[in-house]
Structure formats: structure tokens, C-alpha cells
Amino acid sequence: MDSAIKSHKELTVWRHAMQLAKDVYRLTDQFPRREEYRMTSQLIRAAISIPANIAEGNSRGTRRDYAHFVSIARGSAAELETLLQLASEIELAPALRFKARLTERQKLVACSMGYGRACRRPLNLVPSP
Questions:
Q1: CB 73 within 8 A of CB 108
Q2: 103: Cβ–Cβ under 8 A, 6 or more apart, which residues?
Q3: Is residue 9 a contact partner of residue 126, using CB atoms and an 8 Å limit?
Q4: Residue 63, CB half-sphere, CA atoms under 13 Å: how many?
Q5: C-alpha angle with apex 68: 101 to 10, nearest 5 degrees?
Q6: Less crowded by CB within 10 Å, the N or C end of the chain?
Q7: Contact present, 79 and 24 (Cβ < 8 Å)
Q8: pLDDT tens, 51-106?
């Protein structure tokens, strides 16, 4: 993609996505066992899809490919938000814990959308500090 970025691990958006995925794992540990193959698996699948697609897109050779994978990551983020909202409404875990996760997810999507727009024009990405 860009010579300034050598690895997806340097991208702030990837780091946020990884933290969000870890938070979802911790959060779903609190769910009732009956949810293991229902809500828990759906939440984890959506959460891990976000950093995985950012990493895969970053490793592709073109901006167009990268934009495509960032778009998929945004879709997974929207799916995650919906699942977290539903889990909160059916009281699978304390609502305040979900609120923090939704806020973090919204920051991630905003960052992702910025990278998505950047993929459609020449890039000069700066690694996170």
C-alpha cells in the first residue's frame, strides 16, 4: 500500500479493532452458557472480522482492494453494534458495560471510514505513535 506503513500492526485503526475484539471476548465470558452457540458466537465472529479484514486489506497490493476490505470491516462493525444493542436490550450483561463497548465501536468505525475514504485517493498514512 504505502511505503510508510510496513505492517497492518502499525495502523491505529487495527489496534483499536484488536482491543475491541478482546473486549468482546471478555464481555461474552459473562453471558449465560446457553448463549454459547447463539449470541456469543455471533458477537465474537463479528468482532474478530474487523481487525482481520483491516489486516487482509492492508496486505493487498492496491488501494481499491484495501478499500474493499475496509468496507467489509465497517459492515462487521455495524453488525457488532447491532448484536451488542440486542444483547443489552435482552439483558445478557449489565447495560453499562455494553455502552462502553458501543462507544469504542463508534470510534473505530469513524476511524475506519476515514481510512476508507483515504483508499480512494493517494495515501500518506502515518503510523500510530
A1: no
A2: none
A3: no
A4: 13
A5: 60
A6: C
A7: no
A8: 999 999 988 878 899 889 988 998 998 898 889 888 888 888 776 677 777 677 76
- 96 CB contacts (<8 Å, ≥6 apart)? none
Looking up cell 482481520, which residue turns up? 52
CA distances from 82 to 11, 41, 77 (A): 25, 14, 9
Amino acid at site 71: S
Helix axes 95-118, 12-28, angle to 10 degrees: 160
> What 8-state DSSP symbol labels residue 23?
H
- The one-letter code for the residue type at 34 is R
Q: How far is CA 97 from CA 11, 16, 100, 105, in A?
A: 26, 17, 5, 13
Q: How far apart are the first and last CA of the chain?
A: 19
pTM of the complete model: 0.78
